[in-house]
Write a structure and sequence with these properties.
Layout lengths: L4 E7 L2 H4 L2 H11 L4 E6 L5 H9 L7 E3 L11 H7 L13 E4 L4 E3 L6 H13 L3 E2 L2 E4 L6 H15 L1 H8 L6 E4 L3 E4 H7 L2 H13 L11 H10 L35 E3 L17 H14 L3 H9 L2 H13 L8 H8 L3
Parallel strand pairs: 1-2, 1-4, 2-3
Antiparallel strand pairs: 4-9, 5-10, 6-9, 7-8
């Protein structure tokens, strides 16, 4: 069976738009059969549009501009939550929908990512979506973290909402993750248009996080699905120990499974942000070898790297340094990255 897959996300802010060519190029390079629909809060940056055209990708994706542009007092919390309430008739042209992080460079894995998630849904969790659960016990937050959360709530949603929010700070923290793969027919039969519109209204009026212990759209997603009687607690909990077992894309037949399917470039925004817990990940060895074996001498990748801006090139430079990939044998790549000012 040739499953039809759509990849989607919601992007707010100029800084996150910079990742659009990266995510689009890598996803279409690795999985050309997937369609991509990107929802933007504003208009697409003309320079990024130019890059997509030069890569012959602009007419291969759908970009929907000014989505939720009428939302009052827009902020990063609302922006992250909006991806969970998007309803678009185009989705129903597909069998599966994958909500992604935009700050990723995707890598093709031995078993295509959609087949991994389909197997996990149908044979392990029996749920209409695939994700994992993040859980922290009551009072997991320090006093400083509680104060910071309350102040952030006050700043972004007002003092009265912050006062209401504070009483929930002592509750257990239940979240899903930000990577969400769904069986469209089964999922939207339960999480229907009315459910999404009701939760969209909560985002608009700023009440969507009041009853969460932390200001997180992942808490919002957990509650939204819990409230329509989906047994989200059947999902295994994230492993915070060495190795991060949930990251292994070979574990689709095990309870704990939620890989990122590539390099999270958000980890390389600056030199100090790089997450050392990635050091021992088996999947990162695979991704490193994929770059060496397939991408560093690939003409499409070289062209892509030459077109993106210096900030985006820097993410790759930091990744190659971190992965200890010697570019001496790849002069085409080295020349491009050496030009970064």
């Amino acid at each position: 069976m040739n499953e039809k897959v759509c990849v989607t996300t919601y992007v707010w802010g100029d800084n996150y738009q910079l990742y659009i060519p990266i995510a689009v190029f890598s996803m279409k390079k690795m999985y050309p059969e997937y369609d991509i629909i990107i929802f933007l809060h504003s208009s697409l940056n003309p320079e990024l549009k130019k890059i997509l055209i030069q890569l012959d990708l602009f007419d291969k994706i759908v970009i929907k501009e000014n989505t939720f542009a009428n939302c009052p007092n827009m902020n990063k919390y609302k922006a992250k939550a909006f991806r969970w309430v998007i309803w678009d008739e185009l989705f129903f042209n597909y069998d599966y929908l994958y909500t992604i992080d935009i700050d990723m460079f995707y890598i093709k894995e031995p078993l295509p990512l959609h087949k991994q998630h389909i197997y996990h849904m149908e044979n392990v969790t029996k749920l209409p979506f695939d994700n994992m659960r993040r859980f922290q016990k009551r009072n997991a937050l320090t006093l400083k973290e509680k104060i910071v959360s309350s102040l952030a709530c006050s700043k972004n949603f007002g003092v009265f909402k912050a006062i209401k929010h504070y009483k929930y700070i002592y509750n257990d923290i239940n979240k899903l993750s930000g990577l969400h793969f769904v069986d469209i027919k089964k999922y939207y039969y339960i999480v229907n248009k009315e459910v999404l519109k009701a939760n969209e209204k909560k985002i608009f009026d700023g009440t969507f996080l009041i009853d969460s212990p932390v200001l997180s759209d992942e808490c919002f997603l957990y509650k939204m699905l819990k409230n329509v009687n989906i047994n989200v607690d059947i999902l295994d909990q994230q492993d915070f120990g060495p190795g991060f077992k949930h990251m292994d894309f070979n574990n689709y037949n095990k309870p704990l499974f939620r890989p990122v399917h590539g390099i999270h470039l958000g980890d390389f925004r600056n030199d100090t942000h790089i997450k050392k817990e990635n050091d021992n990940l088996v999947c990162y060895d695979y991704y490193k070898n994929y770059f060496i074996d397939f991408l560093l001498n690939d003409n499409d990748f070289t062209k892509f790297l030459s077109l993106i801006n210096n900030q985006s090139k820097l993410y790759f430079k930091r990744y190659f340094d971190y992965a200890v990939i010697d570019l001496a044998n790849y002069s085409n790549i080295k020349i491009i990255l050496d030009e970064i000012i």
